[in-house]
Amino acid sequence: MLRGSSGLYNYVVLDHDQSFPATKLSQIRVAYKLPDKFNYMVISDDIQKFMPMEQDYKNGQPLAYREAIMWTNSSDPTSKTAVEDKYQYSQDMKDQQVHGWISSGEFPVGFWLIKASTEFYSAGPFKQELTSHMGPISLIDFFSGHYAGQNFLLSVQDGERWQKVIGPYFVYLNKASTLNDPFAQLWSDAKQQLQKEIEKWPYEFPSSDIYAKANQRGSVGGQLLIRDRYLSNELIPASSAWVGLAAPGEEGSWQTETKGYQFWTKADNDGNFIIKGVHEGEYSLFAWVPGFLGEYKHNSNILVHPGEQINLNEVVYEPPRNGPTLWEIGIPDRTAAEFFVPDPSPEYINPALLSNEKNKYRQYGLWDRYIDLYPDNDLVYTVGVSNYTKDWFFAHVQRRTENKDLQPATWQIQFPLNNVNPYGSYTLRISLASASAAQLRVRFNVDPTSRPHFTTRKMGLDNAIARHGIHGLYWQLSFDVSGTLLQNGMNTLYLTQSIASSPFCGVMYDYLRLEGPSS
């Protein structure tokens, strides 16, 4: 606690001594159970609501899993029945900087959890975690398998020396000074306090020897450029690229890395970036660029020393590509947000998610809307005719039969080709925004029940379909397609998600592309 500060700072020191045995952790979080008078929850500018009481939740009707219920607000007789599910309020860590609750009464009070940095979270700034939910409860999940899978663990070996500071984060309290829209007043003040905390980061007050103060940190900067000879003869600035430092590892390893610190920033329109406040240590440099497939990893590790300002100058990323684009579906941005997200069934609406169209994916039961939209036949997408914002369902899920059995769904992509080279090698690239106990089978121009040309292994456990995510963990798939599988005129690509053991098995596509032979 600091003099003159309306709140308190919290941080956790994790210390595994060399004398300690091996251990595994599946979750590290802090939960605050507030008095019932805190009944207005604020997650963001566009997700705010009066929440049900705990008794309403207990009296509610359970839905497909225990966290989701249908409830009626007993304290408001005019309230309509609605769905409540804590996963509807999850956020990426990069967006989860401040959230909290506001109390009822003559002079409302705000309770806020403020995080000035994401460096101490596991798996980077795109990892999704819970925020607040009915209780009233506010959470900070530093590490868990949410949107990653039950195998997402923090493991420390026998005799391994490991230390980490989680936090500090700020528990901030404020009080309305007037009765003129007090909720908006308290939320605005909380956001202003967040900016003040960001300006003070890294804090100077923590007494832990392993917490790195400002003079114990360095920075890494440069300019990220893209080389894609099929798009331009010139290097392309990596506008709005996400660039980060994480523990040394393979391409993409940062999204399952659980023990170290991660430092990320967003490049400007010219691809310039500077990552500030980096702890002393050895890192891999990773990056990905909205609009470009794949991910960059620097060819050598980077050593950061206190006070050092490392300039990498120009860094060039060559996205995966073997030939010219023949067709593409979606935008390579690691989410399924650009695809068609249906309206929820009227009985399952959460009104708090209606104010912004971008939150529609958070509504309950969207996996069952597929069969409502495609009652007789599975999805068929025709290149050059269909529009992926309207004609490509956001999640490849199962079909339900009349007796409620689940069956694999086979989607079709129909596409015309001219001058097919039977001796050439074509490339089908599929990037996934999420995979949950899924397996894809790929066929070209054959009976969709015949032996597939390509089959993936069973992929993913991120459960993003059930937990109202628009992404989970990112996957890249590439298939070398012989020209003998293709034909002049109309072709059909069949995509079957073959595992139908649960309504939540499936994938969310990020982007699909067929490339011609190299030229």
Automatic annotation (TrEMBL):
GO MF terms held by the record: carbohydrate binding
Rhamnogalacturonan lyase domain residues: 239-312, 325-514
Pfam family membership, one: fn3_3
Domain of life (superkingdom): Eukaryota
Protein keywords: Signal
Family annotation (InterPro entries): Carb-bd-like_fold, Galactose-bd-like_sf, GH-type_carb-bd, Polysacch_Lyase_4, RG-lyase_II, RG-lyase_III, Rhamnogal_lyase
Keyword Nuclease on entry: no
Keyword Signal recorded: yes
Descriptive protein name: Rhamnogalacturonan endolyase
Organism expressing this protein natively: Chenopodium quinoa (Quinoa)
